[in-house]
Amino acid sequence: MEVTQNAAELCALLIDELYGELPSRIFAVLLSRGRSNLAQLAQYTSMNPRQLRHGLAVLIQYNLLFHQSDGGNTVYEANAAFAYNLIRTGKILEMVESSFGPVAKDVMQNLMISGQTRVSDLLAAYQIKIDRTKAAAEQDMDIEFPEFKLNGVNGNYHEVKKPDHQVKSTAQLNSIICRLVEAELIDVVHSKSFQSPDDIVKEAESQVVANYFPNGVKGGKGKAEYEQKVAEALRKIRSESKSLKRKLESNGAASKRRKLFAGIGQNGASNGTANGTANGSNGVNGANGANGAHEEEMDPALDPKQVIRINYEKCLVDLRNRRLVQFVCDTLGETTGYVYGVLLRILTKQLSRCQLDPRLDIAEDGNENQGPASVTSNELLDNMKTSIDLSLGIGKAAKNIISSRAAEKIRENPPKPKLFIEAAVDGDASADESESDDDESSDYDSDFEEQPAAPAANGSKVKFADGAAGKEQRMDRPMQLRQHLLLLSESHQHFLRHCGTNEWTVDFGPLLQIQREAELDAVIERTSGKDGLRLVRILRTNGKMDEKALQNIALMRKGELQQKMLEMQRAGFVQIQEVPRDNKADVKKSLFLWYVDLESSSTMMLETSYKSMVRCLQVLEVLRQKEKDVLMLTKRTDVKGREKDVMRKEYFDRYSRFQAHEKQLFAQVLRLDDLVALLRDF
Amino acid sequence: MAGDDDDNAKLQILKNALYDEARNHGSEERLFTQKDLIDLGVIPDSNLLLLVKVVQSLCDDRLLVGVSSGSGIAWRWRNREDAKKYTSLPNEETMMVYAVIDEAGADGIWNRTIKNKLNMHENLVKQCIKHLETKGYIASMKNVEHPNKKMYIKANLRPSDRATGGPWFTEGELDTAFIDQLKEIIFEYIKSKSAYLGSLPGQSANPALRPPRKGTIRGTAPSAPASDADAASARGTKRAATDISNDDSPAPARAPEGGGAPARRPPGKVYLPMPAGYRHYPTVPEIAQLIHDTGITNNTTLGEADIQQLVDVLRYDGLIEPIKVNGRRGYRVARPTKQDTVSFAKRQKDREAGIGLDLPMFGMEPPGNGLTEVPCGRCPVFELCEEGGPVSPANCVYFDQWLEI
Fold this sequence. Notes:
A: Arc Repressor Mutant, subunit A, B: Arc Repressor Mutant, subunit A, 4 domains, 16 helices
């Protein structure tokens, strides 16, 4: 993560919000000064070593620091990426709840509150809790872990917990942790977890040199070999955090459990994502309790000394899935969005991170973590909730006005990056121009001819009801599912690629690029209006253009156009280039070409987002200062929890108004984070 | 003397014969080379000297115009009326000016260019132009590309599209109202033809958990035989009452309308995407045909290229997207489920009544994101904003407004 001034400010504010001022100040100093040792820190912060040690301990506990010691001298470095991830706490918890049920969310939340934790500590903490719950079964749950301070970010997860949302036994806790580990949402802290990535790379490099190239790396071949060796070493280090997962997998419990569930049918774990995306209901999770007893016994007890923490990388993959589903819901409708959600979930099961590391992943030969493979139609069908009516969400049309040949086209290779010229020449943005031109004549003119051809192309799986519309409504379920998949792959955004008969995959790179453009468009449309958006999109499809050409395409008045372009140039959405006609470079004769630079616009938007988030949090602080007396009151132990009854009405009104504002501001920060995640992390 | 007269008479006959023959062999645009003229078979014995004489004489009469083409000199004929105009001019200069303007054709010519081309004094040019204008041979015109230049054109010509700016310009001004109206019509057409108007199964309830219902979404009435035309016409048009009674969503009592366009669709209608491979997405020729048939543009003829231009603008506006099915390039509405289902006629009526004027003309509300919602995203002094500065989070008026403090 590149740390700019605004990003640094934001990270410091987040830490302040969650863990208090002391760690926040140390963190801010570390960010601005770079890696420092204790003495330097003392100098920069004018704090005494005791304070510093306290602050550093907190930061280390929450994984917010990298540190390295050689011979007594320990240097600390800020881990800005993790600090930023704090903002996503609420989102991740929500995601875990919808995928794994409320109990797992509770475990995850506690893990977040306590930072990296030894399994035994977590078990012990829960043991106390379980005992007490048993002792005071009918009492309300006041014996929770210290309340998570960032109320707003957690949204409404604050509600009184029902007993069945609690962990009931340590065995259940163990099983939940196992499941989360299998999903890679929790990983293991190991010796290298606290080294900064740069250090790890350096160390791996020097080790490779020492072990394999004592005489230095020579020649092209040697260099390639060297890089491969380094990548290998790095991969080994990276996979260390997955050791627990591998252990569980080799144990075979996971697969056994899966088989069992397949027999039972419905279970919260396998259907969870669906809940969150398509309908947001928790009803299905009811089945959880019934199965509970079986699953717990099968999981091996975890090594109590193992230290676990939350794996944000994998969380991001799941958050990205949710985001894409949202995008599909927005463009194509909710049922299709649900189908897409299921597909993404299966597809990304083995995907550990959103962005591949060029150094590590390019060299790999597709064994692990390579771009997602593909999902077959049958796999999808097996994972669809039976209560979903797949016939919804797509329009109906008579059989003979649908070209199944076009719809079923198989694209084996990911789309090539579009060239400006291509788009400009034929004014069409579809990337598969040449392919579809081939069958132009035969298909379009003879509407009915292709009917016999269709089954051949689709394999035997797909059967069409003959002609009549009445029959058409009775498409069987595989066909309905297929309709959604085809719709997705035909979409302008290329959500899906039909990469083989009945096989489907997603090209994340180009798809996310399109989504980034869409977000940028939204911002441009709101700030510069429809006309501005039109101009930017013209430039994006056609490349550089002078004003006159732009005017002709956009059908806008010259004056308005000039004004709009200037406005957008100031806002940083478009750029201008001067091209002299001759050596004299006479300004009057020069050509002025407008163009858009997506990269710089995105960077700018990212910065604006950081700064806006910072402002939201600062405004919140201002509000807190303003309502100081009320907030002080609510902190009193005799008031806490019973604000409405105890406080005077006037005070309570002020308090609830403040709460509303706090909620609004936090919600906004999270909305901004959606944007940041898309621009930076996905 | 007699020989001369004889020659003259002979020349006159040859001239007429050559001129008529040339007229028979092509339009005014056609260029005749020397060989072409000989091959017309008018000049006896293909006598080149005689040909030169005849052509020279025709040129003097302004009946032939010499043009230097790529392969040498060539001629084209000019009709007698125009030629007469030339000969009726008082002097050589006026004739030259008229020739230059004539040459410029429908694009017209700038008076400064005339002056430079002929290397004449400005006053003289002015004089000639004045003379020509009073005679009604030429007229002044306006060019959209250079609105400030004084241009002249032959009076009997209509300025070319390049000069007038094509159909989108009215008196040299871009007619945005006209364009917007047409865009709206095209968009409505594409919207209704490229998406399927289905009912929304219970907006509040969970759509997925409902048992499948018959008749929730239905294009053609079950009794109607399915055919291209039926399916196409069923979409976007009024649905039969029986269709609606099948839905269990509360369909409000629809006032019977006199066969016209549906005034308002019941709430809970939604546009759905067509299945993949749908082959009747409207194409530009179809749209052009629609515009032509409805006769909205009664005194402007719009070609397919013009319609394409409008469709492209809609595409750039993000309202529609191109889709190619089997080589047929059609257009479909973007984000169909988010489109409003208020009919065109109803919207027009509302607008006349002054309702919804603040809404976008057509299309949906622009999508928003975190940045467009927070005050900072639209803050005019965002750059200046810092803690302790003149504009700071502590004294931000925009946030106060937003939070309604």
